[in-house]
Amino acid sequence: MEKISLYKYEYACKMLETELQILLEEFKRKHGYSPVEHFKARIKSMDSIEKKLRKKGYELTEENIEKYVSDVVGVRLVVSFLSDVYDIVSSITRATNILIKKRKDYIKEPKDSGYTSYHIIVLVPIYLEGYVEYITAEIQVRTVAMDFWATLEHKIRYKFPDVIPDEVKASLENAAIDVHELDEKMYEMNKIMTKYEQEKK
């Protein structure tokens, strides 16, 4: 069996984490606050990579990982308000050290399960001896409420790996609607708070 090394992805994870930390610090300097509640970078486990490839009908090889697994490197940014999602996405898309490959707005177009988040597939440069290579990574930006729902949904899918019972599926979908409504209410409240802050100046 081919021996798989993820060292390039580890380099890319460090590069991306550093780049995003700088972007967030610059955002805070410019706007006077940091919207990010949680920031987490990770490398997908080999077991998860293999499972994803097998599901797509591919063998576990370095070439197949590069071609068919876009989230070996993953970063999740959890923000306070709905508007913060798009502010952070805007900052990321203006970054000069990472290239945007693809974007998917699951907030405007949620998955059938009710999942909502903003996904950005990026190319991260890693500087090896004598050349530069670009590694694919995934950035997820979501609100606290979205993250709460996604965490529970992940645990439920782990308990029902084959088929989620209709009753549980319906409850998840209803909870997703509640999460969206909560985010909308918190967004409106944030606009009111911002208005009062501006009036004080």
Description:
The protein is an alpha+beta fold and 201 residues long. The protein has a domain at 7-144: Beta Polymerase, domain 2. It has 6 helices and 5 strands, in the order αβααβαβββαα. A 5-stranded mixed sheet has the order 1-2-5-4-3. A hairpin with a 2-residue loop joins β4 (118-128) and β5 (131-143). α5 runs antiparallel to α6 (166-200). The model has no long low-confidence stretch (mean pLDDT 91).
Key descriptive features of the protein:
201 residues; 5 strands; alpha+beta
First-to-last CA distance = 66 Å
Structural class by secondary-structure content: alpha+beta
Could you tell me the number of beta strands? 5
Kindly report the average pLDDT value: 91
**SSE string:** HEHHEHEEEHH
Q: Going across the biggest sheet, name each strand in turn.
A: 1-2-5-4-3
For the report, how would you describe the main beta sheet? 5 strands, mixed
CATH architecture annotation of the domain at 7-144:
2-Layer Sandwich
**Annotation field: number of helices:** 6
Radius of gyration: 19 Å
CATH superfamily of the domain at 7-144: Beta Polymerase, domain 2
Assign an overall shape.
Answer: flat
Give the percentage of residues in beta strands.
15-25%
Task: Return residue spans where pLDDT drops below 50 for at least 5 consecutive residues.
Answer: none
Task: Enter the CATH topology name of the domain at 7-144.
Answer: Beta Polymerase, domain 2
